[in-house]
Write a structure and sequence with these properties.
CATH superfamily of the largest domain: FAD/NAD(P)-binding domain
Largest sheet: 7 strands, mixed
Distance between the termini: 84 Å
Radius of gyration: 24 Å
Strand content: 25-35%
CATH architecture of the largest domain: 3-Layer(bba) Sandwich
Shape: globular
Number of helices: 13
Helix content: 25-40%
Length: 457
Amino acid sequence: MKKTDLLIIGGSAGGILSATTARKAYGDIDITVIRETEEVMVPCGIPYIYGTLHDTNKNIIPKAMLTDAGIHLLIDRVTHIDREAKTVATKNNGAIQYKKMILATGSLPIVPTSIPGHDLENVFPITKNKDYLEMLLEKVKKADNVVVVGGGFIGVEFAEQIKLLGKNVSLIELADACLWQAFDKEFTDDLENILKEKGIDVRTRSTVKRMIGSKTVSAVELQSGDVIPAEVVILGLGVRPNSTLAQEAGIQVNDKGAIVVDQYTRTSDPDIFAVGDCAEKKCFFTGKDVPVLLASTAAMEAKIAGSNAFQLRLVRANKGTISAFSTKIFGKTFAAAGITEARAREEGFTIMVGEFTTMDKHPASLPRSQKVKVKLIFSKCSGVILGGQISGGDSVGEMINILSLAIQKGMTATELNTFQVATHPLISSSPISYPINSASMNAIASNCKHLNEDLEI
């Protein structure tokens, strides 16, 4: 029987980083990663195969990240976990004994089985399998009309990328707005207007009634009665935890099927950890379960699991999911972290809001300057930041990381108004109007209006 000190099941972002972190934390221990495919995709890069890369081979996480670190990579499928014997059964390599285990089994796409025609040919849920994605690429190239169902990040990015190929693209979203979970209305309106200006048929508040076709899909019918031609339908309805292996082993899962973990990523079995899409997520602010399944969140959890596998070394490092997102649509970046104004009000927070718009270079006459719009949400009583949303140029992608850290550290509007920034005309906004500072100041100013009423000057 093969033996290993640390066994990791799953070899995408969460599994890879768990393994490499454990190597750095524990030195020369035996680490084995089991995954079902030789190659794995960069998860967030999948939509960009279709309009930018045009090749699945350009979107692969190199396995050298594991092999160069002396980590054993086994291409196989685990069929059973025996927690009492601390062994796993594999399809092709017999039993493997472990001391500690990390589950990084990821997620599976949500397929709307209640919709007639969901199983027609050329209706594609998005999986992370290279051969599958290569087949989808060939189908998209041959299609004239593509319908994307689901207006979350994956759906919006697929719609944008396929439109770059010159296809007729329709984007169907059940809710009032695309990306509504991450952004307030002023940002979702802006994003949808950009999509429409580029020729994408955006249908919000729309429900798919059925997929039409005898064998292969030819159209999508909405509940409104509208029929949209489609040679390819892409389902971007989100994902669900891939936790079957854990459930069969008697490991506790929540009502959504996610593996229950503590702040150290330990499961109900203290020798088994879980990270990434298969593990449950708690909101940083409310402690409620949240379906935020991101590679960046998996990376944070993987660092905790890899460090804590044999000793609890990272203490209180995971206080909940902040939900930091970013995307770029037709040259404009949209990013968010924390909770929206709408969600904050729903949860009962008393808030103050600061907003600011400026240019991302100074002076604004410099080439390729773009407008930056910032919205920050703070607790009105404590001044602690609850969330932020930004749109603009590429600098937005790193500004949201500043806000993510600010949320994690409980920074206040005053601290964000006065934090010191490095600026340069060619790469940032002016120091006298740096967006985060200025939006914070505006929140403070709006909250102080009542103080000025009794002021005598």
